[in-house]
Here is the input.
Amino acid sequence: MKYFLRILFLLVLVLSFSSEFAKGGKMMFEGKTDIGKIKFPGSVKFIPEKNTYQIIGSGENIWGKEDAFYYAWNKVEGDLSMKMEYKWIGKGKHEHRKGGWMVRAGLEPNDAYVDAVIHGDGLISMQYRKEKGGDTYEVRSAINGQFKLVLEKTGDQFTMYVDKGDGKIYPAGTITVEMKGHVYAGLAVTSHDSTVKETAIFSNVEMKKLGVVEESKRIVESTLETFDIETGVRTIVRKVKEHFEAPNWSRDGKTFIYNSGGKIYYLPIEGGTPKQMNTDFAVKCNNDHGISPDGKQFVISNHAADGKSLIYTLPIEGGSPKLITKDGPSYWHGWSPDGKTLAYCAERNGNYDVYTIPVGGGEETRLTTAEGLDDGPDYSPDGKYIYFNSVRTKQMKIWRMKADGSEQTQFTPTDDYGDWFAHPSPDNKWIVFVSFEKSVEGHPANKNVLVRMMPTAGGEVKTVAKLFGGQGTINVPSWSPDSKKFAFVSYRLVNP
Here is the structure.
């Protein structure tokens, strides 16, 4: 009998031990602790045969200047890729109970952090606190529900994706939070009500440690995305470890055209393998290019032998470029709706201004004369106006003038951002543009930027995407023909 009891006791120990270890290996997380003021201690249970974690957590919230939650974590360094899907047990007391991935600078309740969480009501968001004791901010996904969630750390950049199981992943945003050295990465659960505990089941949990990469050795990853203005959903079309810029959307809606390495490429809107456009001698094209209103011609800005950009046109299917501007630098930006005129930014006598020229070439007409940079001209679909960006008030803003250059008026409001490259939708209801922090000079690459929209009738400016980019993101017209979507490029600096 004693022998039987001893065997039974050992069996219980083994079963208990298995709740902390997977088949042939340990539980993923080395640390398990409550963070902040907690009334009911939390716990984690590992079910190895299902690669599932049952986490019970309490706490008032993960928000504001300090947090209260349960945390299962690893102390790690370098880049990370973390995936999981989960569901709640029971209906819950608070609709904003939340659980998901977190990367944290420390284990104090007010430490800097970034998380990717699903709320009790299905809201998916990326929350972040940039500094110890600071406020918490949020980027919300347009997709809600119990889907697979991905959080990736590349240096100080954090990107959240939603995986709906349809073969695509949907970006929610990229933000930057500086956390040097080791961080704490793992799964977090808060009840959003300190008087109760909530239970979440995390499945298909995966944490990949991608190593430490020196910033100087990182390479650019470019992602061509579309944004649906009705649903707010961002969809990835092409994502590769190479640099490309500035997608145009073809007039028939079937193709994107972008530049990379001085050359021009076609890409089907569903993605796939790009095809190089024949531009003959013009193999130093920059990101200022576009499609004629009838869809038959293409315009490029190509750097001549002296390094200055000149404007050329060629057939949309490719061919020998025809020189339009004899003087440089000249950078194309807009094509009049009647197909007769090109608008561009050019430097003449030390000042950058907006010019127009007949599409067949000839004499150019100067439309702006203010000191400082005037750039990015694009026509309204009715041909009455030209939108452009100007620094004449010491802050880069979108302006609008009549097509003949008269009635130049600031269009986007003065705020905390510098606005560049406005593009009106084909139905003339919206402009979309890229915004830098106002301290940023010019429109450089590799900055935290916003893609914003504003009604052409005037009104509120709306942020539709937070990303890492700037130069190359949305330099040229990129609306779909039906005005329901536009395309842009986001970037990351990643492990080669």
